[in-house]
Design a protein that fits this description.
- The complex is a heterodimer.
- By secondary structure, chain A is mainly α.
- Chain A has a single domain, classed as Cytochrome c oxidase-like, subunit I domain (Cytochrome C Oxidase, Chain A), CATH 1.20.210.10.
- In chain B, helix 7 packs across helix 9.
- Classes of the chains: A mainly alpha, B alpha+beta.
């Protein structure tokens, strides 16, 4: 058998075009993972810019910096982008990169399907943003959809949404959704069928367990959305009347279908935050995760219960008291397994020897802010309180504490933690800490006051407000917070670029961690592992480092 | 040339009017849920304080655990040894599974009772019943024998609070009727009839607005509730029931109004104007605001509105009728007689 050695060009550099081709044509899970996350971060900047424009308009009462049409497009694109083109690709990107490394295999089960899923996602995102140049908005000019990320019928029907902007919304997300479902199936198969010898289900790292539940949710939740979007497409293009209330269609049918997707979707987005934290907190506390079996059980419970809570988005639509009470019960119930996770993370830290590196700081930010977002979630589950504040800024504050304070903070934690593995270089701790504190201040300054303005009666999605309503101060504070956040995100971008150019070499295992990805080189070779590893416990590298006191004795 | 100059003068006038600072809604308290004036809003506030107590306590416990770890469990400098590995504890984990379950159960029972208290399916005795129709972007209040817009009047008796039982319907897309001080909100959905029970216990002016995104001018779909002593209310209602005033002094303006497309959308009872797409103008001057609460109903604002509503409420369904300055003056003079 002959081994073919790839010859390098004389200078040791590959021509740019070849490198580009290598990325475009790749089926390597690591390259696809990096492309997913990079695209997600770019969309994050765009959606953040959209949010900043909205906060500029709302900083003072009665401003007309942005006209109502444009404002409505901004919040539609902001929400749609953050959910489908930031949260989802970062989920799939990190899973793509990490899961084969963590379960000790060389790629996903279906590498080409994986690449196809990525390119479908990117096409969907570009199609959505193409609407700014080519779609026909309400005024007959090229523009983006303005129906909200939830696209409630009948606002999306031909009568109220002329032109093609809504069609761009449907098709962009439909394509992305198909790609997401494919990748989710791919990852489920990979986790179930390709784990290295010795890694039984209960010996998988918690991240893999949590993402497994996550992908099953994706597979269950996305088809109802795709179905609803096809029905809407039929309404708009073929003269069907599923949601066309003027011809006897049902506005509530859309809401049921959308939220049957939309609520699991919220958990699809937050579960990766749980996954990252469950790996990072133990490593920086120098202590094994507290109560692994209960953490797994809680994850599965969250997955199951989250499929039965969607009506809590519809408490104000006038359903019967009994239906409202049932879904209030199921929604409160989902707080229990989530609470268990909080307690177990805290118990992991207690008794540890915590190292306050940037990833851990972001995890602590995640814990405190997600705690607040979770508790206001209990508030909102309570139907009478929901009647008071649903569709108000209180809700905006709540879910940004979950998705920004929770998810985005843990994404930053994950990037600071795994960037050395991905690139082979460390990120700057100084810049990282500056970014953390600026983001902490900016985030809380922006989204904390929103709880107040919501309880003072300010509805969501309004482009302006009268000064007599008494919301001026709270809105001004929210807008000032944005400045801190822009500074923080800029530092992050600088940190990444700086590190890629002249960051310190990371080595294989800079954090003294315990899972398999740290046993290979940074960045890992295309084949990941020279020999497929064999594991005996949940922390194979702990066993290697402490042969006298290995984990498998206690599990 | 002459037409050009007239148009120029007109646009100067328009920009002058549009630049008048918009005084907005007459002073009314902030629509806060912390200042309830009726039973449903009271119940909501009671449940809110219960939530603040319970969730606050849970939050403090978890925060205490986190801060204890952050303060007491740092890695000492120069200490490279690993701490004791604790894999879990069944009794402790059982405790923080069962205790939250019990808390959830109690919270569920209390709140479920709140739901059944507030969500009334039939009008309480003696309630004032009004049919509310949501339009893009204004509210129609149909009292049965007359209809008005944007401002809902209800009577108040000295001795007991007034129950308001609304029937909610939509003419186009989904809206949501929200008066934070008087109760919860309920969506207004096309092809569906919803009901909402509110209560007001003291006289005054209360504000709220549409809470469900309904398109362009969602932000300016405002609601005012005027709770007034019964005698005052009866006088108001009696006036609303009358047909429009017919004042010969403003016949010219009335003529322009009736021969322009105004009448396709607006109703003025007692004339041929019987459109239903837009607010009933029969007693326009009895309202404090125009444009669904976007501006005070003053002669200047009214003229600016008739001149070009798009300057004030961009995207609203009313177009500029391209009247000349003189015609706008005449039409407004007519409208100002509709008391």
């Amino acid at each position: 058998m002959t081994v073919v050695q790839q010859p390098l060009s004389p200078a040791g550099r590959v021509p740019a075009l070849s490198r580009l081709h290598e990325w475009v044509a790749t089926t390597d899970h690591k390259k696809l993972g990096v492309m997913y996350v990079t695209a997600g971060l770019l969309f994050f900047m765009i959606a953040g810019l959209e949010a900043s424009l909205m906060r500029w308009q709302l900083a003072l009462p009665n401003q007309s910096i942005i006209m109502p049409d444009d404002f409505n497009r901004l919040f539609t694109m902001h929400g749609t982008t953050m959910v489908f083109f930031v949260g989802m690709p970062i989920l799939f990107g990190s899973a793509n990169f990490l899961i084969p490394l963590m379960i000790g295999t060389r790629d996903l089960a279906f590498p080409r399907l994986n690449a196809f899923g990525f390119w479908l996602f990117l096409l969907g995102g570009l199609l959505l943003y193409f609407s700014y140049f080519a779609g026909q908005g309400l005024q007959g000019m090229g523009s983006a959809p303005d129906v909200g990320w939830f696209a409630y019928a009948p606002l999306t029907e031909r009568t109220f949404s002329r032109g093609h902007s809504t069609d761009y919304w449907i098709l962009g997300i439909l394509l992305t959704g198909i790609g997401s479902a494919m990748t989710a199936i791919n990852l489920v198969v990979t986790i179930l069928a390709m784990r290295c010898p010795g890694m039984s289900l209960m010996k998988m790292p918690l991240l893999v367990w949590i993402l497994l539940v996550d992908f099953i949710l994706v597979v269950v939740a996305l088809p109802p959305l795709a179905a609803a979007q096809c029905m809407l497409l039929f309404d708009r293009s073929l003269g069907a009347h599923f949601f066309d209330t003027q011809a006897g269609g049902s506005a509530l049918l859309w809401q049921n279908l959308f939220w049957f997707f939309g609520h699991p979707e919220v958990y699809i987005l937050i579960l990766p935050a749980f996954a990252f934290s469950s790996e990072i907190i133990p490593v920086f506390s120098r202590k094994v995760i507290f109560g692994y079996p209960l953490m797994v059980a809680a994850t599965v419970a969250i997955g199951i219960i989250s499929l039965g809570v969607w009506v809590h988005h519809m408490f104000a639509v006038g359903l019967s008291p009994l239906v409202n009470a049932i879904f209030m019960g199921s929604t409160m119930l989902v707080g229990v397994p989530t609470g268990i996770k909080m307690f177990n993370w805290a118990a992991t830290m207690i008794g540890g020897k915590i190292r306050f590196h940037t990833p851990m700081l972001f995890c602590l930010g995640f814990l405190c802010q997600f705690l607040l977002g979770g508790l206001t979630g209990i508030f909102l589950a309570t139907v009478p309180f929901d009647w008071a504040v649903s569709d108000s800024y209180f809700v905006v504050g709540h879910f940004h504490y979950v998705l920004f304070g929770g998810l985005v903070f843990s994404i930053f934690a994950a990037i600071y933690y795994w960037f050395p593995k991905v690139s082979g270089r460390m990120l700057s701790e100084t810049l990282g800490k500056w970014q953390f504190w600026l983001l902490m201040i900016g985030f809380n300054l922006t989204f904390g006051p929103m709880h107040v303005s919501g309880m003072l009666g300010m509805p969501r999605r309004i482009y302006t407000y009268h000064t007599e309503r008494g919301w001026d101060l709270w809105n001004l504070l929210s807008s000032i917070g944005v400045l801190f956040q822009i500074a923080a995100v800029s530092l992050f971008a600088i940190n990444i670029i700086r590190s890629l150019m002249k960051g310190a070499k990371a080595g294989d295992d800079p954090w003294d961690a315990w899972t398999l990805e740290w046993s290979t080189t940074s960045p890992p070779p295309p084949y990941n592992f020279k020999d497929i590893p064999v594991v005996h416990s949940r922390r194979p590298l702990w066993d290697l480092k402490h042969p006298d006191d290995p984990d498998w004795k206690y599990e | 040339m002459l037409i050009g100059m007239v148009n120029f003068a007109n646009s100067m006038l328009a920009s002058l009017i549009a630049s008048i600072p918009d005084p907005g809604i007459p002073s009314a308290p902030t629509p806060t849920m912390f200042n309830p004036v009726g039973a449903p809003a009271d119940t909501i506030l009671d449940i809110t304080w219960l939530l603040v107590g319970i969730c606050g306590l849970i939050g403090l416990v978890v925060l205490a655990m986190i801060f204890f770890a952050v303060i007491r469990c740092r890695q000492p400098k120069g200490d490279d040894t690993e701490p004791a590995q604790v894999y879990g504890s069944n009794p402790i984990e059982l405790a923080w599974t069962v205790i939250p379950l019990l808390i959830v159960f109690v919270l569920f029972m209390v709140s479920a009772r709140g739901i059944f208290d507030i969500e009334k399916t039939s009008p309480p005795d003696g309630a004032i019943e009004v049919r509310v129709i949501g339009h893009r972007w204004w509210w129609e209040f149909d009292y049965g024998d007359f209809a008005t817009a944007a401002e809902l009047h209800v009577p108040i008796d000295e001795d007991k609070p007034t129950d308001i039982y609304l029937t909610l319907e939509s003419a186009d897309v989904i809206h949501s009727f929200w008066m934070p001080q008087l109760g919860g909100k309920t969506d207004v959905i096309p092809n569906r009839i919803n009901h909402l029970w509110l209560q007001v216990a003291k006289a005054g002016t209360y504000v709220g607005q549409c809470a469900e995104y309904c398109g362009n001018q969602h932000a300016n779909m405002l609601i005012t509730v005027v709770a007034q002593p019964r005698a005052e209310y009866e006088a108001w209602a009696a006036n609303q029931r009358r047909e429009a005033v017919d004042d010969r002094a403003v016949a010219a303006g009335k003529h322009i109004f009736l021969r322009t497309a105004c009448i396709n959308c607006h109703t003025v009872r007692g004339t041929v104007a019987n459109g239903t797409f837009a607010p009933d103008l029969t007693h326009l001057m009895s309202r404090d605001t125009i444009g669904s609460g976007i501006a005070r109903n003053t002669p200047n604002n009214l003229r600016a509105w008739v001149w070009d509503p798009q300057n004030i409420k961009p995207g609203c369904e009313m177009p500029s009728m391209k009247l000349t300055r003189e015609e706008v003056d005449l039409v407004c003079a007519y409208l100002e007689t509709l008391r």
